[in-house]
Amino acid sequence: VKDRGRAHFRFFREEMNHSFPNEALMESHLRRAIEMDELYIHYQPQVNLKTGQINSFEALLRWDNKTFGFVPPSQFIPIAEESGLILQLGDWVLEKVCHQLQEWQQKGYHHMRIAVNISPKQFKQETFSFYVESLLAQYQVSPEALEVEITESAMTNMRETLTVLNSLKKIGVVISIDDFGTGYSSLSYLKRYPIDIIKIDQSFIRGIETDEKNAAIAKTIIQLAQNLGMEVIAEGVEKLLQVDILKEANCHKAQGYYFSQPVSMNEVIARYFA
Ligand code: C2E
Ligand code: CA
Ligand code: CA
Ligand code: CA
Protein backbone atom coordinates (compact mmCIF):
# COMPACT_ATOMS: atom_id res chain seq x y z
CA VAL A 1 0.00 0.00 0.00
CA LYS A 2 2.87 2.30 0.90
CA ASP A 3 4.50 1.72 -2.47
CA ARG A 4 1.33 2.29 -4.40
CA GLY A 5 0.80 5.49 -2.46
CA ARG A 6 4.24 6.69 -3.39
CA ALA A 7 3.84 5.79 -7.03
CA HIS A 8 0.59 7.66 -7.16
CA PHE A 9 2.20 10.63 -5.45
CA ARG A 10 5.04 10.73 -7.98
CA PHE A 11 2.73 10.40 -10.96
CA PHE A 12 0.59 13.18 -9.62
CA ARG A 13 3.54 15.54 -9.23
CA GLU A 14 4.81 14.92 -12.72
CA GLU A 15 1.45 15.43 -14.27
CA MET A 16 0.87 18.60 -12.29
CA ASN A 17 4.07 20.38 -13.35
CA HIS A 18 3.03 22.84 -10.69
CA SER A 19 3.97 22.83 -7.11
CA PHE A 20 1.04 21.58 -5.08
CA PRO A 21 2.82 18.81 -3.14
CA ASN A 22 -0.33 16.72 -2.71
CA GLU A 23 -4.05 16.50 -3.36
CA ALA A 24 -5.01 17.32 0.23
CA LEU A 25 -3.21 20.65 0.09
CA MET A 26 -4.77 21.42 -3.27
CA GLU A 27 -8.18 20.66 -1.84
CA SER A 28 -7.65 22.94 1.16
CA HIS A 29 -6.58 25.79 -1.12
CA LEU A 30 -9.49 25.11 -3.47
CA ARG A 31 -11.83 25.30 -0.49
CA ARG A 32 -10.76 28.92 -0.03
CA ALA A 33 -10.44 29.83 -3.71
CA ILE A 34 -13.71 31.77 -3.87
CA GLU A 35 -13.09 33.94 -0.81
CA MET A 36 -9.46 34.45 -1.90
CA ASP A 37 -10.76 35.75 -5.22
CA GLU A 38 -8.63 33.28 -7.17
CA LEU A 39 -11.30 32.04 -9.59
CA TYR A 40 -12.31 33.56 -12.88
CA ILE A 41 -14.01 32.49 -16.07
CA HIS A 42 -12.74 32.36 -19.61
CA TYR A 43 -15.08 32.21 -22.56
CA GLN A 44 -14.60 30.31 -25.81
CA PRO A 45 -16.62 31.42 -28.85
CA GLN A 46 -18.72 28.97 -30.85
CA VAL A 47 -18.71 29.85 -34.53
CA ASN A 48 -21.71 29.36 -36.80
CA LEU A 49 -20.16 27.57 -39.79
CA LYS A 50 -22.75 28.85 -42.28
CA THR A 51 -22.67 32.53 -41.39
CA GLY A 52 -19.36 32.89 -39.55
CA GLN A 53 -21.30 34.63 -36.77
CA ILE A 54 -20.78 34.13 -33.07
CA ASN A 55 -23.69 34.26 -30.68
CA SER A 56 -22.66 31.71 -28.08
CA PHE A 57 -19.71 31.09 -25.78
CA GLU A 58 -18.70 28.29 -23.43
CA ALA A 59 -17.76 29.38 -19.91
CA LEU A 60 -14.62 27.61 -18.63
CA LEU A 61 -13.49 27.90 -15.04
CA ARG A 62 -9.95 29.09 -14.26
CA TRP A 63 -8.02 28.95 -10.98
CA ASP A 64 -4.92 31.02 -10.24
CA ASN A 65 -3.78 30.14 -6.73
CA LYS A 66 -1.88 32.85 -4.79
CA THR A 67 0.81 30.42 -3.61
CA PHE A 68 1.06 27.71 -6.26
CA GLY A 69 0.01 29.54 -9.39
CA PHE A 70 -2.28 28.54 -12.23
CA VAL A 71 -3.91 25.13 -11.95
CA PRO A 72 -5.66 23.71 -15.03
CA PRO A 73 -9.24 22.38 -14.70
CA SER A 74 -8.08 18.88 -15.64
CA GLN A 75 -6.32 18.89 -12.25
CA PHE A 76 -8.68 20.71 -9.92
CA ILE A 77 -12.10 19.69 -11.31
CA PRO A 78 -11.61 15.99 -10.38
CA ILE A 79 -10.57 17.03 -6.86
CA ALA A 80 -13.54 19.38 -6.63
CA GLU A 81 -15.78 16.50 -7.74
CA GLU A 82 -14.38 14.05 -5.21
CA SER A 83 -14.54 16.46 -2.29
CA GLY A 84 -17.97 17.85 -3.14
CA LEU A 85 -16.49 21.35 -3.53
CA ILE A 86 -17.76 21.28 -7.10
CA LEU A 87 -21.20 22.20 -5.76
CA GLN A 88 -19.97 25.58 -4.48
CA LEU A 89 -17.77 26.14 -7.52
CA GLY A 90 -20.61 25.21 -9.87
CA ASP A 91 -23.00 27.59 -8.14
CA TRP A 92 -20.36 30.31 -8.34
CA VAL A 93 -19.89 29.83 -12.10
CA LEU A 94 -23.64 29.82 -12.74
CA GLU A 95 -24.12 33.01 -10.77
CA LYS A 96 -21.20 34.79 -12.49
CA VAL A 97 -22.56 33.79 -15.89
CA CYS A 98 -26.07 34.99 -15.06
CA HIS A 99 -24.60 38.28 -13.89
CA GLN A 100 -22.71 38.57 -17.19
CA LEU A 101 -25.85 37.74 -19.19
CA GLN A 102 -27.75 40.40 -17.28
CA GLU A 103 -25.13 42.96 -18.28
CA TRP A 104 -25.37 41.94 -21.95
CA GLN A 105 -29.13 41.96 -21.95
CA GLN A 106 -29.23 45.39 -20.35
CA LYS A 107 -27.00 46.61 -23.18
CA GLY A 108 -29.36 45.11 -25.73
CA TYR A 109 -27.44 41.95 -26.65
CA HIS A 110 -30.43 39.66 -26.22
CA HIS A 111 -29.33 37.07 -28.77
CA MET A 112 -26.10 36.17 -26.96
CA ARG A 113 -25.88 32.87 -25.09
CA ILE A 114 -23.44 31.38 -22.59
CA ALA A 115 -23.02 27.63 -22.00
CA VAL A 116 -22.06 26.42 -18.52
CA ASN A 117 -20.53 23.04 -17.65
CA ILE A 118 -22.61 21.23 -15.06
CA SER A 119 -20.89 18.51 -13.06
CA PRO A 120 -22.76 15.23 -12.44
CA LYS A 121 -22.93 15.95 -8.69
CA GLN A 122 -24.42 19.38 -9.32
CA PHE A 123 -26.91 18.00 -11.81
CA LYS A 124 -28.05 15.33 -9.37
CA GLN A 125 -28.80 17.85 -6.63
CA GLU A 126 -32.52 18.00 -6.03
CA THR A 127 -32.37 21.77 -5.90
CA PHE A 128 -30.52 22.23 -9.19
CA SER A 129 -33.35 23.36 -11.45
CA PHE A 130 -34.74 25.58 -8.67
CA TYR A 131 -31.35 27.21 -8.32
CA VAL A 132 -31.17 27.87 -12.06
CA GLU A 133 -34.67 29.29 -12.06
CA SER A 134 -34.00 31.55 -9.08
CA LEU A 135 -30.78 32.91 -10.60
CA LEU A 136 -32.53 33.73 -13.87
CA ALA A 137 -35.20 35.57 -11.90
CA GLN A 138 -32.71 37.34 -9.64
CA TYR A 139 -30.66 38.64 -12.59
CA GLN A 140 -33.66 39.05 -14.88
CA VAL A 141 -32.06 36.96 -17.59
CA SER A 142 -34.17 35.32 -20.28
CA PRO A 143 -33.77 31.53 -20.08
CA GLU A 144 -32.77 31.04 -23.74
CA ALA A 145 -29.57 32.95 -22.99
CA LEU A 146 -28.37 30.21 -20.67
CA GLU A 147 -27.21 26.80 -21.83
CA VAL A 148 -26.40 23.90 -19.53
CA GLU A 149 -23.83 21.36 -20.72
CA ILE A 150 -24.38 17.93 -19.25
CA THR A 151 -22.23 14.86 -19.81
CA GLU A 152 -23.51 11.35 -20.35
CA SER A 153 -21.92 10.39 -17.03
CA ALA A 154 -24.50 12.56 -15.22
CA MET A 155 -27.34 10.56 -16.71
CA THR A 156 -26.98 7.38 -14.69
CA ASN A 157 -30.52 7.27 -13.37
CA MET A 158 -33.16 7.58 -16.06
CA ARG A 159 -36.11 8.83 -13.96
CA GLU A 160 -33.96 11.27 -12.06
CA THR A 161 -32.40 12.60 -15.28
CA LEU A 162 -35.76 12.94 -16.98
CA THR A 163 -37.17 14.89 -14.04
CA VAL A 164 -34.29 17.37 -13.96
CA LEU A 165 -34.13 17.81 -17.74
CA ASN A 166 -37.88 18.31 -18.01
CA SER A 167 -37.76 20.97 -15.30
CA LEU A 168 -34.91 22.75 -17.09
CA LYS A 169 -36.78 22.50 -20.37
CA LYS A 170 -39.86 23.99 -18.75
CA ILE A 171 -37.80 26.90 -17.45
CA GLY A 172 -36.64 27.41 -21.03
CA VAL A 173 -32.87 27.02 -20.76
CA VAL A 174 -30.98 25.36 -23.59
CA ILE A 175 -29.79 21.81 -22.89
CA SER A 176 -26.70 20.31 -24.49
CA ILE A 177 -24.92 16.98 -24.23
CA ASP A 178 -21.19 17.51 -23.73
CA ASP A 179 -18.46 15.11 -24.91
CA PHE A 180 -21.04 13.21 -26.93
CA GLY A 181 -20.07 9.65 -27.76
CA THR A 182 -17.54 9.16 -24.97
CA GLY A 183 -19.92 7.88 -22.27
CA TYR A 184 -21.53 4.52 -21.80
CA SER A 185 -25.16 5.48 -22.22
CA SER A 186 -27.22 4.22 -25.08
CA LEU A 187 -28.56 6.27 -27.96
CA SER A 188 -32.09 5.86 -26.64
CA TYR A 189 -31.67 8.80 -24.31
CA LEU A 190 -31.61 11.07 -27.35
CA LYS A 191 -35.24 10.28 -27.94
CA ARG A 192 -36.22 10.18 -24.28
CA TYR A 193 -34.69 13.45 -23.06
CA PRO A 194 -35.42 17.02 -24.20
CA ILE A 195 -31.97 17.72 -25.67
CA ASP A 196 -31.35 20.76 -27.86
CA ILE A 197 -27.68 20.44 -28.76
CA ILE A 198 -25.13 17.65 -29.23
CA LYS A 199 -21.48 18.55 -28.73
CA ILE A 200 -19.19 16.16 -30.59
CA ASP A 201 -16.26 15.30 -28.35
CA GLN A 202 -12.89 16.56 -29.50
CA SER A 203 -11.47 13.04 -29.60
CA PHE A 204 -13.61 12.46 -32.71
CA ILE A 205 -12.57 15.75 -34.32
CA ARG A 206 -8.85 15.20 -33.80
CA GLY A 207 -7.33 13.91 -37.04
CA ILE A 208 -10.69 14.08 -38.79
CA GLU A 209 -8.81 15.23 -41.92
CA THR A 210 -6.71 12.05 -42.09
CA ASP A 211 -8.44 9.48 -39.90
CA GLU A 212 -11.28 7.88 -41.85
CA LYS A 213 -12.86 6.36 -38.78
CA ASN A 214 -13.06 9.66 -36.94
CA ALA A 215 -14.42 11.33 -40.07
CA ALA A 216 -17.11 8.66 -40.38
CA ILE A 217 -18.08 8.98 -36.71
CA ALA A 218 -18.21 12.79 -36.80
CA LYS A 219 -20.30 12.84 -39.97
CA THR A 220 -22.67 10.23 -38.56
CA ILE A 221 -23.18 12.22 -35.36
CA ILE A 222 -23.89 15.36 -37.41
CA GLN A 223 -26.42 13.46 -39.50
CA LEU A 224 -28.00 11.95 -36.41
CA ALA A 225 -28.39 15.36 -34.77
CA GLN A 226 -29.96 16.77 -37.90
CA ASN A 227 -32.38 13.89 -38.24
CA LEU A 228 -33.44 14.45 -34.64
CA GLY A 229 -33.82 18.20 -35.17
CA MET A 230 -30.98 19.02 -32.79
CA GLU A 231 -28.16 21.50 -33.21
CA VAL A 232 -24.64 20.08 -33.40
CA ILE A 233 -21.35 21.63 -32.28
CA ALA A 234 -17.90 20.23 -33.08
CA GLU A 235 -15.37 20.69 -30.27
CA GLY A 236 -11.59 20.95 -30.45
CA VAL A 237 -11.40 22.25 -34.01
CA GLU A 238 -7.80 23.25 -34.63
CA LYS A 239 -7.31 23.27 -38.40
CA LEU A 240 -8.84 24.82 -41.49
CA LEU A 241 -9.03 21.36 -43.10
CA GLN A 242 -11.23 20.24 -40.21
CA VAL A 243 -13.45 23.30 -40.67
CA ASP A 244 -13.86 22.45 -44.35
CA ILE A 245 -14.92 18.88 -43.62
CA LEU A 246 -17.40 20.02 -40.95
CA LYS A 247 -18.88 22.67 -43.26
CA GLU A 248 -19.25 20.10 -46.00
CA ALA A 249 -21.10 17.83 -43.56
CA ASN A 250 -23.40 20.74 -42.58
CA CYS A 251 -22.27 20.90 -38.99
CA HIS A 252 -23.93 23.95 -37.40
CA LYS A 253 -21.21 25.28 -35.15
CA ALA A 254 -17.58 24.73 -34.26
CA GLN A 255 -15.44 25.59 -31.28
CA GLY A 256 -11.68 25.29 -30.96
CA TYR A 257 -8.22 26.82 -31.11
CA TYR A 258 -8.54 27.35 -34.87
CA PHE A 259 -11.06 30.10 -34.09
CA SER A 260 -10.02 31.09 -30.59
CA GLN A 261 -8.72 29.87 -27.26
CA PRO A 262 -10.94 30.57 -24.28
CA VAL A 263 -10.40 34.27 -23.46
CA SER A 264 -11.31 36.83 -20.80
CA MET A 265 -14.59 38.74 -20.92
CA ASN A 266 -12.69 41.94 -21.73
CA GLU A 267 -11.24 40.20 -24.76
CA VAL A 268 -14.66 38.86 -25.76
CA ILE A 269 -16.11 42.35 -25.64
CA ALA A 270 -13.21 43.91 -27.53
CA ARG A 271 -13.38 41.27 -30.28
CA TYR A 272 -17.04 40.46 -30.69
CA PHE A 273 -19.01 43.38 -29.28
CA ALA A 274 -17.07 46.19 -30.91
P1 C2E B 1 -14.89 20.46 -21.74
O1 C2E B 1 -16.19 20.89 -21.16
O2 C2E B 1 -14.94 19.36 -22.73
O3 C2E B 1 -14.25 21.78 -22.32
C1 C2E B 1 -13.47 21.82 -23.50
C2 C2E B 1 -12.01 21.85 -23.17
O4 C2E B 1 -11.25 21.78 -24.37
C3 C2E B 1 -11.54 23.11 -22.46
O5 C2E B 1 -10.46 22.77 -21.61
C4 C2E B 1 -11.03 23.96 -23.63
O6 C2E B 1 -10.10 24.95 -23.24
C5 C2E B 1 -10.38 22.89 -24.46
N1 C2E B 1 -10.29 23.24 -25.88
C6 C2E B 1 -11.01 24.14 -26.58
N2 C2E B 1 -10.65 24.16 -27.87
C7 C2E B 1 -9.67 23.25 -28.00
C8 C2E B 1 -8.87 22.81 -29.11
O7 C2E B 1 -9.00 23.26 -30.24
N3 C2E B 1 -7.95 21.83 -28.86
C9 C2E B 1 -7.78 21.30 -27.63
N4 C2E B 1 -6.86 20.35 -27.47
N5 C2E B 1 -8.51 21.70 -26.54
C10 C2E B 1 -9.45 22.66 -26.75
P2 C2E B 1 -10.37 23.33 -20.13
O8 C2E B 1 -10.84 24.74 -20.07
O9 C2E B 1 -8.99 23.02 -19.66
O10 C2E B 1 -11.41 22.46 -19.34
C11 C2E B 1 -11.27 21.07 -19.21
C12 C2E B 1 -12.50 20.44 -18.66
O11 C2E B 1 -12.72 20.90 -17.32
C13 C2E B 1 -13.77 20.80 -19.42
O12 C2E B 1 -13.87 20.01 -20.57
C14 C2E B 1 -14.81 20.49 -18.36
O13 C2E B 1 -15.08 19.12 -18.32
C15 C2E B 1 -14.10 20.89 -17.09
N6 C2E B 1 -14.56 22.25 -16.71
C16 C2E B 1 -14.09 23.47 -17.07
N7 C2E B 1 -14.80 24.45 -16.48
C17 C2E B 1 -15.75 23.84 -15.75
C18 C2E B 1 -16.82 24.31 -14.90
O14 C2E B 1 -17.09 25.52 -14.74
N8 C2E B 1 -17.60 23.35 -14.29
C19 C2E B 1 -17.36 22.02 -14.47
N9 C2E B 1 -18.16 21.14 -13.83
N10 C2E B 1 -16.39 21.55 -15.26
C20 C2E B 1 -15.60 22.45 -15.89
CA1 CA C 1 -18.07 21.54 -21.99
CA1 CA D 1 -16.59 18.87 -24.20
CA1 CA E 1 -14.20 16.93 -21.90
UniProtKB/TrEMBL annotation:
Domain of life of the native organism: Bacteria
Shown stretch of the complete protein: 413 to 686 of 686
Coiled coil: none
Membrane-crossing segments per the record: none
EAL domain mapped to chain residues: 23-274
Protein name, UniProt field: Phosphodiesterase
Organism: Paenisporosarcina cavernae
